[in-house]
Amino acid sequence: MAHTVVDGWTVPGFTHERDLGGGSAGRVVLAVDDMTQTKVAIRYLDKRLEADEALLSRYRMVARRLSQLEDPNVVDVFDFVENPSPSGGTAIVMQRAEGVSLRRILASRGPGGPLAALSALGGVLLGLAAGEGREVVHGALRPSNVMVAPDGEARLTDFGLGFGPAAGPAYAAPELWDDAAPSIASDLYAAAAIFFECLTGRPPFSARSNSGWAKAHRETPVPVDQVPGPLRDVLAHGLAKEPEKRPASAADFAAELEEAAVAAYGPSWEAQGRGRLAELVKEAAASPEPAPSRIRITGQNRVAAPSGGRSGGGRRWALVGLAAVVVAGGGAGAYFTMGGKKDTADPPHPSQEASTAAPTPTAPAGPGAALAAQIREATTRTPSASFSFRRTGPGIKANAHGSFTLVNGAEPSYTMQLAGGGETKRPGQTVVIGENAYVRAGKAWRMTPVSSKGYPSLAAQVRSAGSVPALTALLENSTKFQHNGTLYQGTAALGALGQQPGFGGLYAELARATGAQEVTFFLRVDKANRPVQLKLRAGAKPHWLLTNYTGWARKPPIAAPKTGA
């Protein structure tokens, strides 16, 4: 169906291959980029949506905030195109990906067990954290816009646009029924409701009218007795009636999930859960597609106009972490297909091809060294990111969140809010640049060495646990190393890590505190080989250190605050 016209026009520069169906939001076609020969999905918005200028304005606003976001738990949108002719027309050019929606998995296979549910929730929370890093909430989260790839990776679509609680009543937080604006708290409530459905096969509450839904969410006790015991606290926290009683952020909820999953199912829970999700994707794709249900307009893609236009060899795509099209039987969700060739090559993994980065003569030739080189090369191009950190263990607890910038030839600079125990129990603001820490006291800043007790040493610990130099040293000193897609697992000797300059003190302290001789690590990277999540485990009564990374970009260096009154 080459060059088929949809509603009187086609997006220039693409050849349509076939129709993919549609619904209230408009038609969707499979197309090929004439310049790159990349296959994409294009959705042509329904004329009624085009007439809603407020809706289109929200598209543009979200696009500005999420431009350049590349995250393995968020589906990409490439372009937002508006037809300048009087006849009008609006279309969204999206990633052509593989897999099925979580809604289709639940409809065709039912609940897949606690490990699959935990893995799905983990992917959802990482996707929400990526949006949160850009100050964008989802606002319309439900199983139809959680997509699961053939490798079991859960990914989000439909960021930033909702049509009120009635559009997804089973997942709408109590405050939304009182006309509150969507927030990260309401997103976490929806994520917990999806988690419940993955565990049991049905949402946590039921009703027959909007007023009934509102009453159920506000008043009905959370049915925690219907889920496995080790997961009840996680569920109850996410489904708390009051927003302030839910986790403070998606990263905090992910860390809480990690602790519960490890305690209940062991440190390999994530790999097992993704494997089970991959099985469910294959089974759901092979099953007859459920009959289409009445499709609602639930808030589809927000997109950005291309940077620099679409003409000429220097064309740039505006990469936005969103996508949604209407798929028969799947509701609103990204267009995914099963099978077929990849149209563009992903960056090679270390087991497939050696890194092209210049070798570091002093780096150990451990099994993770090739990945370490690729991470250094990738993060050099986008040296800044947001992060969250959490450490737990017997008698130990620390939390931090903020941002950092890599510094050539020196330790990265960090700005963060953090809290620990004792004198650091109250959250404090700290900036770390080189060997100096700047601690905020009231309206003033105080400079002190990072070796000082209290917030400076705690901030240094945060940097040591998750900085890119520390991470690459961990990989280079690995003694065991394996991977499944973008998920890596290995071990490294604490003795060797404790000798590393700059951050060896953390590993030496871990060895003393736990009596362990090695640390186990779990690392997830994005398609560009930039860190997404790093988990460290040491000891029989384990100490866990969890760092999440979002929003990789190139930003100005972190400046030292002015000290004094």
Q: How would you sum up this structure, described in words?
A:
With 565 residues, this protein is of the alpha+beta class. Among the domains are: 110-138 and 166-286, Transferase(Phosphotransferase) domain 1 (Transferase(Phosphotransferase), domain 1); 369-553, outer membrane lipoprotein receptor (LolB), chain A (Clam). Helices cover 29% and strands 26% of the residues. The chain is built from 14 helices and 23 strands. The strands form five sheets. Strands 18-17-16-15-14-13-23-22-21-20-19 form an eleven-stranded antiparallel β-sheet, sandwiched between helices. The chain has a five-stranded antiparallel β-sheet with strand order 1-2-3-5-4. Strand 14 and strand 15 (410-419) form a beta hairpin. It is globular and about 65 Å long. The chain starts with 13 loop residues before the first strand and ends in a 12-residue tail after the last strand. The model is unreliable at 292-364 (pLDDT under 50).
Query: What is the CA-based Rg, rounded?
Result: 24 Å
Task: Please provide the count of β strands.
Answer: 23
CATH architecture of the domain at 369-553: Clam
Mass-distribution shape: globular
The helix fraction, in percent, is 25-40%
Structural class: alpha+beta
Instruction: Provide the residue-averaged pLDDT.
Output: 80
**Termini gap:** 70 Å
Beta percentage is: 25-35%
At the third CATH level, what is the topology name of the domain at 369-553?
outer membrane lipoprotein receptor (LolB), chain A
Adjacency order of strands in the biggest sheet: 18-17-16-15-14-13-23-22-21-20-19
- CATH class of the domain at 369-553 equals Mainly Beta
Low-confidence runs of at least 5 consecutive residues: 292-364
Largest sheet: 11 strands, antiparallel
Helical element count? Answer: 14
